[in-house]
## 1
Amino acid sequence: LIMTTPEEITAVFQRHTDHRLQLEELMQLFPQVLPENLRSLDMPKIESLINFIKTVVNHETGSMVVSRQLVNIIISRLEGDAIEGASGKYGERCEPVNNNLLKLALVKLLGILQPRAISYEDQLAQVSFKLAGIFEREGNNKQAAYYLRNMNLEQAQRGIADAEKCDIYLRTAGLYLEAEEAEEAEKMINRVSLLLQNKEKKDDELTIKYKALFARILDSRRRFLEAASRFYELANSPLLSVSDRKDALASAITAVLLAPPGATRTRLLIQLYKDERSSDIKAFRLLEKTYLCRIIKSQEIADFENSLLPHQKLNESGENIVRNVLLEHNVIAASRIYGSISMKSLAELLGIATEEDAEMVAAQMIADKRLEAEMDQIESKIIFKRTNPIAQWDEHIGLMCEQVSKVYDAILSAHPDFVQKVESNM
């Protein structure tokens, strides 16, 4: 292979000022840098090709119109396409260059174009997209996501539709999620959220894909309550198949069982339990016992834990999520059955090895005001406080009335004319 020289390229630009003629003459140098038979392409020839492109791109008198077109043509040829020019067709349609050589060429090409990113935005995006595809096929999801993320979609010279941007952002988020980079995945999914805010049609396939991926990301980040809510929303979407809705429902039940106690969790727990489809889900028995505040056996906890994904088993501190949530549930369930219970019996009930561990669980719940009880360390027992249900009901009604009053005051402040009109018609 005869190597082309910088002087030959300079001569092309000096002979012609017309972009079309410059491009055609540069293409006539292809036999020196890009063999017509791609099977003969090897590492030295790739280096020669890259030097050729570098010289064209960096040529001070060269037009970027020409260099952009040249880069596009060479990428197309490396992928096996025939090249059409004024002097005829160069090379036949064939298999693309093997992944290793194509990856090497594209990475080096990226290095050449990056310093002039403003002038070569579209070409950089094209190269990055192709590199992402190669790394994804190789199973290197994190590297594939890196190249997709570095595509400057917002400032590309050609207008990119919001739907196309969403597809790329969703793909990037999915790759980060597969690479167990949930935080980076959430950053990418948030970009999609901003784009979808302006969409008129809210329930199309793209939106469903976004919701499904966002739910998985929230679950992966152990934000189980938010994840459960989004999974349940998907479980009720008519755009999903029956099997997909069932999978979403199962994910919602798992997430709500792992979520920390609270009013929002309780409301979602009720919705899931009363959903007729839930009885067909494997974790329904556990859901039922949680809803009815019944004791959950140690074996049931172990079986549920075995069905979980790695991120669902331990929190960021390395503590067992299932143990923390379901053991606390069992303590609450015990408080509904017993007036008092010895630490030894509580440990046996919870499936905990020692009385001291059972005492620590109960003590922490009392300190966090999640359990109304007193501990008698002399007698080694816990005494549960019974709340008067009527007094508790009155308190809830009072809180509800207070919230309604606040809403009324807010509406009156913002829309006094509307309130006056409504009251006059009452």
## 2
Amino acid sequence: VHQSKLDFFCKLGYGKQDICKVLENLGQEALEDDVLKELIRMGSKPQALENQAQPSQLKLVARGSCSTTPGLKWLGEDESDASSSLRPIVIDGSNVAMSHGNKEVFSCWGIQLAVDWFRERGHTYIKVFVPLWRKEPPRQDSPIADQHILEELEKQSILVYTPSRKVKGKRVVCYDDRYIVKVAYEKDGVIVSNDHYRDLQNENPEWKWFIEQRLLMYSFVSNRFMPPDDPLGRHGPTLSNFLSKKPVLPEKKWQPCPYGRKCTYGNKCKFYHPERLHQAQLSVADELRAKTKVPLALGKEEERCQCSP
């Protein structure tokens, strides 16, 4: 039992010393959920994050006769390394499978559709979390369709089973939602689920912000995985910017005025007027005021000249 727990948390990236210390404090029979809570409380971080904090400086070979400094990138290399600009994807396998099965059947084909959709976009880091007891033969109260897909995704190192066991004939299941949110938070990725994780939002204020900003909801339309084009609402980022680390701001395009030359808003018009490029864009009322002020001013000057001796 000790070795299996040690191997499991080592796969998540935690150090052996921290894991052994937690197991000594909680005991060898402690649940994986409790061990994970204690690791989070201790502030232990996976080794992957520590390596990201201190990236190694790569030397790039200069092209042509010009010499380049380390860290300089060419335009062609940025285009070829487009996958590195995409965020990691963490999929709630149970939520996706039950949604595809109309909340009646655990449809593994729905998980495959979601994974294929992100693969086609170029995402390289895709993880799917599913409880371990889903490997068991299907029963009447928990039917499973296309169960062989789980084995294929596990061989591809995409699917991760959250631990579960039986104690005196009763199944003890770890809270898989905590694994999903924790891995997505550490990888600075995106959570794919229709669940809001309200209990985890109340548990950690940092997770609350992360879930609100990085939760990608979806729908299945005729066996087609369809996330929304505006994941954070009408005024939020687009789907492509939501899934990328470096969002691209759209260029501001001026829409031509529908009234054209008949427009009476002048400089207050928010649309584009190509005929007013070299003109003072005054409203009609301002132009009339300006025209009436000029003759009045001239008439007053003439009266002053006639009255003066």
## 3
Amino acid sequence: GRLEAVTQQMGYHPQYLDSFLKTQHYLMHMDGPLPFDCRHYIAIMAAARHQCRYLVNLHVLQFLRAGGDPQWLRGLEFIPPKLRNLNEINKILAHRPWLITKEHIEKLLKISEWSWSLAELVHAVVLLAHCHALASFVFGCGCEQDEGLGGRGSLKPLSLGTQCFCEATAGNSYGQELLRINRKRSLDSCMELDSLRERMQRIHVETEGRDEMRLLQQDREEGEGQGAEGQCSDLSAGLSPLADTDGEVTGATNLACYMQDPDFGYQDFARRDEDQTQVFRVQDYSWEDHGFSLVNRLYSDIGHLLDEKFRMVDGLQSSAMAKRQGCEPSVFKRGIWNYIHCMFGIRYDDYDYAEVNQLLERMLKVYIKTVTCYPEKTNSEMFDRFWKQFKHSEKVHVNLLILEARMQAELLYALQAITQYMI
């Protein structure tokens, strides 16, 4: 039940790692509305949506450690209907969160033998979003591939003992040692990025803008006729696949018992012929003004931990890399963040989406979209190849932005649906 590969990667940014571990520990091991075995089973269901054996195996062990019924591990047919009823919201949040409605919430909360309370549902929603987003990080940094293939050599585990990840929190000697060792790495996370700097500077003098729908339209045109897998074709061309589709490494066959409707996946948010799709306007419902207070009221203190984590990843942009290049760190960070939210139909009225195409090279955009929307199609060679001028710690930084932007997107849709139900 350990997260060594994940903590090693996040350890390049020790302040973020500390915040992440506190949130993970609180979600899984501290007082809350859900029983401990159910928390880990929900995590299994969430990770299975992306065929993430790394996280599934982790939570299977912790599920049993928490006293969970081994029969549940035979699949969804063997779990209580109350848990099984989470299937729909798990599936939608993982792949197309904009489809969540107050009717989904109402169905789970309706009075019956298997009804959920609001507090339980909020806990479950945070768990689902957390594990979906963490699966993106696991695949994006190669943790899944290294675990499944016995190690490619790109991940070199720290020799800091074998304590459970939940013990590596602030104040714990293991956590402090991990932070100390990795702090030196994070201080050396800068390098020359002339082309990026030039593109950033041009933004200040170029005012022509396009809206985010045009950005999405361009992405679709670039991948037209290729389907979902085509989005990563440029990166994966000529690379050996992670495993055959029926192979054991992907775990697709092994994990099938933990999900229904396995063919349900990500689709581009708003096609121009689908007028019924509503753009999510952050000005109308935001984390800061709406989501934070709701989640904190129904699941005490988790809002503060999540907010700290969102702020921590935003603060990482104040790095020596950007300062030395003479550009605003927030510009690059916001470009990635808003591009990810754009793929989920979330719009910022005060943002010029032309910046995305100026800041992000196409190969980087393909990488971000793959890790965000269908991380199971990522392989570790992609991580090695994207933005070779970036150091490893800076690539991890990009994956942390993906993790947090994706998690916040899922939470915004789910919490808005809960708010609409309550109203």
## 4
Amino acid sequence: ASCVQYRLVVRDVHTLQILQLYTCLDQIQHIEWSADSLFILCAMYKRGLVQVWSLEQPEWHCKIDEGSAGLVASCWSPDGRHILNTTEFHLRITVWSLCTKSVSYIKYPKACQQGIAFTRDGRYMALAERRDCKDYVSVFVCSDWQLLRHFDTDTQDLSGIEWAPNGCVLAVWDTCLEYKILLYSLDGRLLSAYCAYEWSLGIKSVAWSPSSQFLAVGSYDGKVRILNHVTWKMITEFGHPATINNPKIVVYKEAQKSPKLGLGRPPFPPPRATSESKYEIASVPASLQTLKPLTDRANPKIGIGMLAFSPDNYFLATRNDNVPSAVWVWDMQKLRLFVVLEQLSPVRSFQWDPQQPRLAICTGGSKVYLWSPAGCVSVQVPGEGDFPVLSLCWHFSGDSLALLSKDHFCLCFLETEEPMGPAVRELDGHT
């Protein structure tokens, strides 16, 4: 699904043929599929409106108007039959039921980086709250939205919450001004608290491993600390130095590749404005391009800004914001650095293939980069003109990849003979 101004376009993922075309009441700011892909939500924050469309019954639709309360966020519940709307100034969250048309209200939601978290099985929702200048967490049962647990957290200014994939532990972390991450059980008991250091900027990113055995905590000091699920103590930390000295670590560097020309004849078709690139293995010691952060300004570009585990738990990909062009891939079985990929431009986004350890990277240029344990490849996005890839998203099957620019999108189909394949045999795009 994609939106163009006030129109919602639903296409077939294989042919890109338009299946449905819906017209909303205003310009769409946010779209989201329900978990079963039967409904799609369109939020128009400026008007305080949400419209819901049915794929099975195109003539059916639903309109939710928050009125004077306004609207700043809207999302589905895991069952795909309830919509959670957050009003302006985070005064409340309104839960709308598509089945019974009933409405529930949840007060005191906290305006923070990540204030709502659902368990993977969809049974429970944790909500960060702020009451009387103090942080709390409430756990609700998603079937009837009844309060299960309510407890206060030992945080100065709670920044985010995240359930472990098994739904047994809730991670709660504090503002970047104080290094503190707390682990709570489902019934609200404090299992452990971890603090790496004091009197400096603290936690910047957090990620659970798919098996719930590891919790990776990215910090402003440029290190990732790995906590284990037995004692909740640190088992190792990963540094991100600007120079790689270990000869066992493979460092791939993107390099420009000049097009081959015929003898005296101009190339046909003419080359693009953006030249092709390839990866070269750098000799050790290898130096990475670093960025000097402006520490006198808010949100300095330092520390671990991105973390992601591979779906099989074998690898962890990270980005250190003051080494913005490099992606670090760590071996989680041996707890050591495995590969470093350095791009020509700063990395904007990366995401793991949901089915296998294959990482897709984009840098805002007209290329997409793929890495797997067998190697890596740089692929030019086909199509006329330049196509700056600003973000990307895998299909859950791992067979296709959506690339997004500011005004267009491209759907790429990956065909490989072997299950891994850094070598993409073919990559077709349609805009």
